[in-house]
């Protein structure tokens, strides 16, 4: 059975193509903002909720009235931008219903809208548009032309969607492919629970550890210098734009380092174990700021801020997403369990108490005296809970 995978490649546009890509991005940003204003005004003036279907139907007239602007680009890509706005509104209403902080959709300023998607290969875009070329790969984008791609690995499966993203001064193309052949690995007969942490990214139930590379911390001084330099630049100036690009390049490097580390760690786990059990973490909740106001701040604000930064630098969410994709492709079983009390429960006798966790690294059971590394003890409990869930599912 095939799986869905994404492939990302660096684009090598000419100067003229880079300018056209920037214009395409700007026109899609303008369309997004205009559609958002349309919805806001219609509701404020007449109490009418505007839906995606109505705005999509108006696209034909918008393109006819602006042939040298909006009319240049793919109709399907513009529909995708309108669907992006519709998704933002659906998320807003879902958060309202769930009594969470709603976060009303915002207008996109320059630098806050960096992606355009073509929802179907062949409709306004074409992957490998010059297959007869002996040495290079090209992607054709309506209004931009055939853009050269630095294809560093083969693409498998059926290309479904094509997206172009700007990161600083560089451009990338991302392909979402269906029916990618799975690549099952030989069975190992081994199972492991994994505990996520900030001291070590992953600790397994058999004592293995994957170090936390701390890429953000390693670049913190350079990022701070770049941010200070940016604060001194006049808004709208050429120097400020150059400094923004420098800051974006630094953040892009950190992101790529984190991704590379996560891929390597996930590959190791998938290669070693048939069954991998992890905590079902709610990372967004775990990294919320301390409650309180400026006048009456919450307790341990500085400590909570530092912990949040370490969790986000570790990239737990990115790692678990990558691990899930690799496990599916390799035919491995991935199980998520409730993390409640896994770090306080003794893996030998089952006694649960906060006193068992002596320090961040040491576990000593107050009932039976069992001692172990705290993360290994937690990973053992995670594995046991995952295997129990698997057995119950098989018995049902």
Automatic annotation (TrEMBL):
Q: Name one Pfam family in it.
A: OrfB_IS605
Instruction: Please list the residue ranges annotated as the Probable transposase IS891/IS1136/IS1341 domain.
Output: 183-289
Q: Pinpoint the Transposase putative helix-turn-helix domain residues.
A: 1-45
Q: Which UniProt keywords apply?
A: DNA recombination, DNA-binding, Metal-binding, Transposition, Zinc
Highest taxon listed in the record's lineage: Bacteria
The residue ranges of the Cas12f1-like TNB domain are 316-382
Question: What are the protein's GO molecular function terms?
Answer: DNA binding; metal ion binding
- Keyword match Zinc: yes
GO terms for biological process, alphabetical: DNA recombination; transposition
What family is this protein classified in? In the C-terminal section; belongs to the transposase 35 family.
Q: State the protein's name.
A: Transposase
The organism is: Nonomuraea deserti
High-level lineage: Bacteria, Bacillati, Actinomycetota, Actinomycetes, Streptosporangiales
């Amino acid at each position: 059975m095939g799986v869905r995978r994404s492939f990302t490649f660096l684009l090598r546009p000419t100067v003229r193509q880079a300018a056209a890509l920037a214009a395409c991005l700007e026109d899609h940003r303008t369309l997004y903002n205009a559609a958002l204003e349309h919805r806001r005004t219609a509701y404020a003036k007449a109490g009418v909720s505007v839906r995606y279907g109505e705005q999509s139907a108006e696209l034909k007239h918008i393109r006819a009235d602006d042939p040298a602007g909006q009319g240049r680009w793919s109709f399907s890509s513009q529909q995708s931008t309108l669907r992006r706005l519709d998704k933002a509104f659906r998320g807003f209403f879902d958060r309202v219903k769930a009594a969470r902080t709603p976060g009303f959709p915002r207008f996109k300023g320059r630098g806050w809208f960096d992606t355009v998607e073509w929802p179907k290969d062949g409709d306004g875009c074409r992957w490998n548009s010059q297959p007869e070329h002996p040495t290079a790969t090209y992607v054709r984008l309506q209004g931009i032309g055939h853009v050269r791609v630095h294809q560093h690995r083969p693409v498998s499966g059926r290309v479904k969607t094509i997206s172009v993203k700007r990161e600083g001064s560089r451009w990338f193309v991302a392909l979402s492919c269906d029916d990618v052949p799975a690549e099952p690995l030989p069975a190992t007969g081994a199972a492991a629970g994994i505990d996520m942490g900030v001291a070590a990214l992953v600790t397994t139930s058999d004592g293995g550890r994957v170090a936390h590379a701390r890429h953000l911390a390693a670049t913190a001084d350079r990022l701070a210098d770049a941010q200070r330099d940016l604060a001194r630049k006049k808004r709208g100036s050429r120097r400020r734009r150059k400094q923004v690009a420098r800051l974006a390049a630094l953040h892009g490097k950190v992101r790529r380092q984190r991704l590379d580390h996560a891929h390597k760690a996930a590959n190791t786990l998938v290669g070693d174990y048939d069954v991998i059990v992890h905590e079902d973490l709610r990372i967004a909740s775990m990294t919320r700021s301390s409650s309180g106001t400026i006048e009456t701040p919450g307790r341990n604000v500085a400590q909570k801020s530092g912990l949040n930064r370490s969790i986000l630098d570790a990239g737990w969410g990115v790692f678990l997403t990558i691990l899930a994709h690799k496990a599916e492709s390799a035919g491995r079983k991935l199980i998520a369990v409730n993390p409640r009390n896994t770090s306080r429960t003794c893996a030998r006798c089952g006694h649960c108490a906060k006193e068992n966790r002596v320090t961040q690294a040491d576990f000593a059971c107050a009932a039976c005296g069992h001692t172990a590394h705290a993360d290994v003890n937690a990973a053992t409990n995670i594995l046991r809970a995952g295997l129990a869930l698997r057995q119950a599912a098989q018995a049902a």
